[in-house]
Amino acid sequence: MRTQEGKEAKALAIIRRLREQGFEAYLAGGCVRDRLLGAPAKDYDIAADARPDVVRRLFDQTVAVGARFGVIIVVMDGEQFEVATFRADAPYLDGRRPSDVRFGSIEEDARRRDFTINGMYLDPQSERVIDLVGGMSDLRAGKIRTIGRPDERFAEDRLRMIRAIRFAARLSFAIDPATLAAIQAQAHAVKVVSAERIGEELTRILTEGGPAVGMELLRGSGLMGELLPEMLALEHCEQPANFHPEGDVYRHTMLALSMLEPGCAETLAFGVLLHDIAKPRCRALSDNRVTFYGHCEHGAEMAREILRRLRRPRAVEERVAYLVRYHLRLCMAPRMRQATLKRMLVEDGFNNLLELSLLDALASNSYLGYYHFCRRALADLDGQKPRPSRLVTGHDLIAAGLTPGPRLGEILREIEDLQLEGTLTDREQALAYVRQRLAGPQPK
Ligand code: ATP
Ligand code: MG
User: Fold this and answer.
1) Residues 83-100 pLDDT 10s
2) How confident is residue 191, by pLDDT bands cut at 50, 70 and 90?
3) Hey, whose CA ends up nearest to atom 28 of ligand 1?
4) pLDDT, tens digit, for every residue of 119-174?
5) Domains of the chain
6) Which atom of ligand 1 is closest in space to residue 119's alpha carbon?
7) Interatomic CA distance for residues 310 and 326, integer angstroms
8) What spacing in Å lies between the alpha carbon of 76 and ligand 1's midpoint?
9) Which ligand has its closest atom nearest to the C-alpha of 28?
10) HSE, side-chain direction, 13 A CA sphere, residue 216
């Protein structure tokens, strides 16, 4: 909270400086919304009637990345603030971005913003709110409504359709009926937006709060069929009631999503979203029993495809594929060899996997035995070195007379297993084991 106050104080200092020079300057957009809701703002954007060149002259440290669009970044005590000149957008020609901007009045600046709750200004010195678009009453009523005609505003910039859903989900607001109807009418055109920006928005819907509400809104608005069509197949994919009293795979996934904390890792969120994505494809009946054999492996591949399509980072793709592939592996933990169990516990993504399996269980029959088993095993590991350094290396094995090849790797792994299980504790014992192995029968 303190850093928040510090940041706001710096924003205020910028506004004061602009005012001293005779300009009009305000906090603008999202930070005003958040402040009125009593929520911490992510960034403080400033809007003023000063031109970019003037802003550059007034402050010591500035970056002119968006000068052409009227935006200057002012660096104040190490923190960055966007200072934008009041502007009006020229026509949008491609459903993505304005063809040009020109400087304008505060009224024009408000009208080019997306939603009424995002279109207000605040004078932080007097706490006066400048609301030219009816933002205050929508904020009170909990409504997402476009500024101006929704069909025109979404046709200008299709990304706004996904933003509407993100804000509705995150703030638990309703989308105004006319705004929602316009999204439904234009959902089919959302793909003119770049895959990167779509991926970014979907990630934010999943991680900023209300992910299940967000997915429901995507489905109800017709956007899901465009952006995540694989999810639609989960609906009406029935599963055995003894394991899944909650209902079909879609319902199960929504329940699991609804338990994610705002601010959670993207990898966990996508892991939860996609853990059962291949169930429809793998559903089969054997002896009158419904089975989903192979859904973990197929699901991991589908998750990769989806995340690649959304241009998420490679590391995210890897981790989510790991989560989907192994999301049922915890059930095997009590029957694993000590070495196998320990190897699993120290895997990079294991904490994510543990959380996923908790949500998976809570969203179905709520059996937490395997989860607690692994938590206990992890606690037992605590204090021990996660991966003890090797007792012997490949060089030692070669020195002992082994020729390089697959057998060398096999023996190294055996030694590591025995080490993890506590049978071999030092180098001498390990070398003795090697000699014994080499003296034994050699496989052909
Ligand atoms: P967040 O808390 O997610 O950052 P925000 O409202 O601050 O929400 P930003 O993307 O940071 O959103 O944009 C800042 C402001 O710029 C918004 O509040 C809105 O007024 C305006 N804005 C952003 N994107 C668009 C858009 N696609 N169309 C119109 N106005 C937009
Ligand atoms: Mg913002």
Assistant:
1) 999 999 877 778 777 777
2) very high
3) 114
4) 999 998 899 999 999 999 999 999 999 999 999 999 999 999 999 999 999 999 99
5) 1-134 (3.30.460.10), 142-227 (1.10.110.30), 229-381 (1.10.3210), 394-439 (no CATH)
6) 20
7) 22
8) 22
9) 1
10) 17
